[in-house]
Amino acid sequence: MEAASHVVIVGGPEGEDELLAIVLEDGEAVPLFSSVEEAQEFLDSTGEFGRDWRPEEVSARRLLEILEFQDEEVRYVALSPPPERLEGGMEVQIIPREALISLLRSRR
Question: What's the pTM value of the predicted model, to 2 decimals?
């Protein structure tokens, strides 16, 4: 079995699990973390919003499936975004979703 090496945030207020996406100026981004603790710290910083969401470890194969399933509004992946309590907004490292999909496909 392939080891889990990526962490996404799933859940939502609707009761059915969905993937968390954050809104950017020119599209949405799926936050991707390297540890459950890092993802939980991000969620904890969002206050009440974070209570309906949880970190979930996924394998590279599952991450590829998740990214391929997203609609065109999700244009990016945000790499380990910092907790939201930082003043003046947060600087987020993003990469195009299609670039990460290509990278994951090449490592199959």
Answer: 0.87
